[in-house]
Amino acid sequence: MTDSLLDSLRAAVPDLRLKTDAGDLEHYGRDWTRRWTPNPLAIALPGSVEEVQAVMRWAAQRQVRVVPSGGRTGLSGGAVAADGELVMSLERMNKALAFDRVDRTLTVQAGMPLEAVHNAAREHGLEYPVDFAARGSCSIGGNIATNAGGIRVIRYGNTREWIAGLKVVTAQGELLDLNRALVKNSSGYDLRQLMIGSEGTLGIVVEATLRLADPPPPTNVMLLALTSFEGLMEVFAAFRERLRLEAFEFFTDIALRHVLAHGAVKPFDEVYPYYVVTEFAVGDQDSEAAAMAAFEACMEAGWVADGVISQSDAQAQQLWRLREGITESLAPYVPYKNDVSVRISQMPAFLEQTQALLGQAYPHFEVVWFGHIGDGNLHINVLKPEQMAQADFVRDCEQVTKLLAQALKAHGGSISAEHGIGLVKKPYLDSTRGPAEIALMRGIRKALDPQGLLNPGKLFDP
Amino acid sequence: MTDSLLDSLRAAVPDLRLKTDAGDLEHYGRDWTRRWTPNPLAIALPGSVEEVQAVMRWAAQRQVRVVPSGGRTGLSGGAVAADGELVMSLERMNKALAFDRVDRTLTVQAGMPLEAVHNAAREHGLEYPVDFAARGSCSIGGNIATNAGGIRVIRYGNTREWIAGLKVVTAQGELLDLNRALVKNSSGYDLRQLMIGSEGTLGIVVEATLRLADPPPPTNVMLLALTSFEGLMEVFAAFRERLRLEAFEFFTDIALRHVLAHGAVKPFDEVYPYYVVTEFAVGDQDSEAAAMAAFEACMEAGWVADGVISQSDAQAQQLWRLREGITESLAPYVPYKNDVSVRISQMPAFLEQTQALLGQAYPHFEVVWFGHIGDGNLHINVLKPEQMAQADFVRDCEQVTKLLAQALKAHGGSISAEHGIGLVKKPYLDSTRGPAEIALMRGIRKALDPQGLLNPGKLFDP
């Protein structure tokens, strides 16, 4: 059955590169979640838009379900293929195609890693400003599928803001050329925006034209030690008021201890419960003075107990590593990840409620907090005790996620700030989107993909 | 029949304000286009979200088609009710509802005029930066329905960029609360973005939460006289390179003559074929010097023959009036309006082709050009000779629009940069959107509004 199906694919797309080895099926069948057993039909590695189209035409004819696949660094199971799907990996389509100095755009294939996009933009003296720790492995197509956020949203917004045009292959194998980098285009529904964040369920992104920004200003990085959680929003306000913030990231002492155990350099002799790493534009005396003024005001108010400001690029990187190394340092503990957001103004009330909730709910688990305070996004990682079975651990965590989802609903928040819904957050989608919204999403999906071929089971059930 | 239908509406929504006088039917049944004879069933003027929902529930039950209506300043017939539709005017829902200093958002009802939004934002020391000449009459809901652009897109983008949340009433009368001003929210399809620019065909915007910007920097306004069309893009490049541009607008001598005939103050003794009005941030000596350097470079290159820089706010307003007064000064000629865009990089080639095309096509008509060069948007207005019948004039113009649409297609442009498709541009939608795209748009509309109740006939036929 599988063999004859793949034979028909080979016949339909003669030059298509296909992988079917057990190791490949496992490698390409999962993402950074480890909760599902990979079980794809095969891995298709198209080399061109035409091949992606041909594979989709074949899939539509044969009713074969397809999982679009980028760098598979996702944390919500959006790229998992556990049920005989064909994985459509874009990894061979990883080139920059065009740069336009007047439009200030870079056109790239969807499989290009984010870091390669950064480098390509810098070669032209410009910046693609979306950035986060998985930059070396994640692909721009995957970034678009989840509307990736990251550490510079406070200044530059999410991926959505930087997409000037998209080429997308539909479930029927047709090619859409969306918006073509027009600055102004009021000609009906913006399907480009609809595709961004749709997690591969409405079409397969094959190319993107990215807007580029001016190179960032010179910056300094500051690490702050906080004495209590309560002062966090005040510290943010004090810095935002006085400085052009490029990033404002928070983490707890537990997070720091894991990063230090992974080889990072200890920043302070003393131990404090909370830390902030913030990056801000400098370049004139005003901004240096403003940074010192913000720091001193926070010291005087008792919110901040200590601080260090980077004196070199190397030191800036060292400080950043304390925040960026967290995810990697936690990986061995197979953490259960929450990625939630509320309006910035709702943060204090939500934080208070959530702290109380988690303190009660997880007395025996280690909970690691970090997040992007400046855009209302908190990451709450629960670490699996070594002896505990994965299934039991997840079951216990899901009980708490139900409570967390209720708190989010009460505060108008989101169960997924930037990871996407995928498989992991699917049971909680209704905490964030109302029944009428979910019904409309279902209708849109059905309109675009009536056979249900694209990334089946992700986001919501048919 | 009409009477019993309206009786049933009065019974279903007892306190609903309704207008049925002939004068009101004409007033609310059309927008700034004058091509269709207004013929609505009646005008509903709901005072609350609940009333909008109740009217839509009634409409769904009775299969009554509904035209959502804001300031009716549209130029594409998007708010025309010429076929017995119920007009749903949001004009009574025109209040600011909430301001949040931490989130930097302003929540307003959809019927609030743009200028009132500007004023409300400024009361809090912040700015809603989308702006254009119809600000006094147009409503924010209409701005959202067309993703309005205007004169500051080069700096601030279109309406789309400033919408943090939307409340929308569906064809079934359900209320959607979309995105709730979250900065990060990756929880499925972004229906907020889908609604923006959908011209009232997918839902009725009843409330919007707007992001606000820092107050604009101090600026100067400069008027430039250009000797030829060819230098236009070079002048733009010279200014963009050296200054933080807030606006860069172009118009022809014919446009200027109409504005002067309307009472504006003549800027130069000599007559030049083309003019640019540009606004840029100042505040330090650097920017003043940069502006002079840009001006002198353009003079030396022979692109610019004369210029004037504003010495006061009053003079800045006087210079702006030369550009902003164009539409009003042309109104008596019932102009046929083209509102097209291409990528900025495509402008020179497109302009050349279009100039040649229009020169051949309109030897007997007066053609007035102006536009937003910095974002690739050209307005081409053809003036009706006094003696010519409107229908004959439109028929002749449409012949040329067909050619223009072909040129746009060749250059990857759009038949509507900012006015929307409505009724006026509907025959040309396929110059901008491919057949697969239009099929998907049709499917989405059908999924959201299966009975075809919302703004029927606009954008595309069922």
TrEMBL record, chains A, B:
Pfam families: FAD-oxidase_C, FAD_binding_4
Domain of life, per lineage: Bacteria
Gene3D superfamilies named among the record's database cross-references: 3.30.465.10, 3.30.70.2190, 3.30.70.2740, Uridine Diphospho-n-acetylenolpyruvylglucosamine Reductase, domain 2 (3.30.43.10), Vanillyl-alcohol Oxidase, Chain A, domain 4 (1.10.45.10)
Cofactor annotation: FAD
Alphabetical keyword list: FAD, Flavoprotein, Oxidoreductase
Matching InterPro entries: FAD-bd_oxidored_4_C, FAD-bd_PCMH, FAD-bd_PCMH-like_sf, FAD-bd_PCMH_sub1, FAD-bd_PCMH_sub2, FAD-linked_Oxase-like_C, FAD-oxidored/transferase_4, Oxid_FAD_bind_N
Record-annotated FAD-binding PCMH-type domain positions: 36-215
UniProt cross-references to PANTHER family, sorted A to Z: D-2-HYDROXYGLUTARATE DEHYDROGENASE, MITOCHONDRIAL (PTHR43716)
Family to which the UniProt record says this protein belongs: Belongs to the FAD-binding oxidoreductase/transferase type 4 family.
The protein's name in its UniProt record: FAD-binding oxidoreductase
Lineage: Bacteria, Pseudomonadati, Pseudomonadota, Gammaproteobacteria, Lysobacterales
